[in-house]
Specification:
By secondary structure, this protein is an alpha+beta fold. It is built from eleven helices and nine strands.
Amino acid sequence: MPRTPMASRDPRAAEGTAGNPRFNIVAFLILLASWIAGAIVTVAVSNGIPFIIGIVLGIVLALSPKIAKQWERAVVLRLGKYRGLRGPGLFWIVPLVDSITAWIDQRVITTNFNAEETLTCDTVPVNVDAVLFWMVYDPEKAALEVQDYARAVSWASQTALRDIIGRTSLADLLSGRERIEGELQQLIDERATPWGVTVQSVEMRDVVIPTSLQDAMSREAQASREKSARIILGQAEVEIANLFQEAAKSYHDNPTALHLRAMNILYEGLKEKGALMLVPSTAVESMGLGGMLGAAAMMQTKLSQGEGS
């Protein structure tokens, strides 16, 4: 079963509700001052009624001051009707009449979402993990147009990812990540804009394909590389044959160059220790190599004796 997309930082925890505890130093001081005043009056008149009144009044007045952080906006309703946004900083509401239904976080929020066992257009099942970067640009729409904008964005991201995977081939999915991320960002942004949400970017973290398909793709890539190597080797053989053909034409018209080349080949072979060269007798007679071969053999013998001593 596909996993529910989870937000790495749940904005609903930052929203809160009117019933969620949020420490407010101003409300605490008002409550404390009311209790102290009620206690003083109670001691002065020797009657417990002022203290009770101070307690009740302090509790009611403590509901009025609210503090919103720099990145928060409070959604205020008066008797169920939208009155506006408040914050950041200190603001006041009418106790028991006004209520704060949500604290909207306007920072950039990251949401992880995924698509498991989703078929591409060429019927290959893949698992894709992605990260969405988004923020609330209109707190009023986020509070009034959708019940839970954070969850709505998560599900919209997952369905958009499945939609794009379904019309993309596996090759495009693996090689065209930037294009797919752009399309995914545009699609999610179109769905989330009516909720007061804008998408900053989408990044695909991982694309997982079945193990059997990975093995097949590996064999295919290996065969393709071997084919390319054989083609390159054949092309090299053709080029070498063409060069030899050109060299043969040059040596045919210039016997001296051919003799010099033969002498160079013999020299390169005989200078190696323990090398043995077999030269046709016709080459010795036609190229006059007898003296040169004898001198080379004597030199090699001397070198061998010198190294042995």
